[in-house]
Amino acid sequence: NTKVWKVDKYVDNLESNPHVVDAAHLIRENEVVALPTETVYGLGGNAESDAAVAKIFAAKGRPGDNPLIIHIAEKVQLNRFVTEIPAKAEVLMDKFWPGPLTIIFNKKDGVLSEKATAGLSTVAVRMPDHPVALALLKKCGLPVAAPSANSSGKPSPTKAEHVIDDLNGKIAGVLDGGSTGVGVESTVVDCTEEIPVILRPGGVTKEQLEVVIGYVGVDPALTDDEARPKAPGMKYRHYAPNAPLFMVSGTSRFLQHLVEEKQQEGLRVGVLTTEEQVEAYQADLVLACGRRAELESVAAALYETLRRFNQENVDIIFSEMFPGTGVGHAIMNRLQKAAGNRMISEKAPTPEM
Ligand code: TXA
Ligand code: MG
């Protein structure tokens, strides 16, 4: 069975915490361990070892063409495996590292496992803003490849319990640092071209990036179903609860009407809403995902809410929409993926559900 090592993230000198030391030792031996970050839990392994990286892909059931993010504790580690650091990337690192921003660089060959980067000529790197993650990274002294620590396709884990639900028996251990903060993954920004481009919206918003480096593009595939995403992972259906999820554009009355229609067909219906609106619905399971007035709280609660629908065995889920600005961009991106892009609009109800 997978070991759960509880670590209080607020104590000093985490690098000598016995659990952190054990986990670092396991990583040096090319085993894999789950670790808390400020976004979601990651499944970490030695990024320079094919054997370790193969274990990560196997535990998650992740397709081999989807590259991993390399986690570091110090900027100097970059020199080992990237060819150059563009000026805008330098500015972004100074401003947002450690933090929920992943930067794509051109890669030096022959250092990292080719499996970790899925054979690409580029590499995704971030410095997580979590004391336990940073202590582990410093202690093991290696670049650590770490995708989110969920089974491929499932919502990402924001608590150690979620990691255990998905990966128990498949990994050596999980450092339990409590709930992660941000709740959605890091923003992935490609800095290999003159104009940086967001490949995955996340914890750092487009607006925040543009304050420091000016105009930032967005991968057209994020809005156009037909375009091929530049981040290979964005082409997969993700974050999906077991029951089909539909995004609903319209009033709460319209959404409640959909609920009743489905209940009349004998289905158990779930509703994803926020604290402001819970009273507006009567369904088999109404879950408040944070507070709409504070989108950060919606992001923080999103994946746990999606996981709770699974535990309660609903047959169909209707979700409210969120504004696409700020961290709402990441929230809507994840919900739309979870919904497989199914949307029902009050103005033009679709018949195909
Ligand atoms: O917040 C996060 O980023 C979390 C925590 C654990 O750090 N990690 C995470 O990793 O979300 P993962 O593997 O679930 O997602 C990595 C994303 C995928 O969409 C992948 O395709 C993309 O980053 N990616 C990785 N390397 C890339 C590259 N060289 N070029 C383009 N996209 C890349
Ligand atoms: Mg993931």
Automatic annotation (TrEMBL):
Broad EC category: transferase
Ranges where the YrdC-like domain occurs: 17-204
GO molecular function, one term: L-threonylcarbamoyladenylate synthase
Subcellular location: Cytoplasm
Keywords, sorted A to Z: ATP-binding, Cytoplasm, Nucleotide-binding, Nucleotidyltransferase, Transferase, tRNA processing
EC number: 2.7.7.87
Main location group: cytoplasm
Pfam families listed in its UniProt record: Sua5_C, Sua5_yciO_yrdC
InterPro entries: DHBP_synth_RibB-like_a/b_dom (IPR017945), Sua5-like_dom (IPR006070), Sua5/YwlC_C (IPR038385), Sua5_C (IPR005145), T(6)A37_SUA5 (IPR010923), TC-AMP_synthase_SUA5 (IPR050156)
Reactions it catalyzes: L-threonine + hydrogencarbonate + ATP = L-threonylcarbamoyladenylate + diphosphate + H2O
NCBIfam families, per database record: L-threonylcarbamoyladenylate synthase
General function of this protein: Required for the formation of a threonylcarbamoyl group on adenosine at position 37 (t(6)A37) in tRNAs that read codons beginning with adenine.
Similarity comment text for this entry: Belongs to the SUA5 family.
Protein name: Threonylcarbamoyl-AMP synthase
Organism of provenance: Neobacillus rhizosphaerae
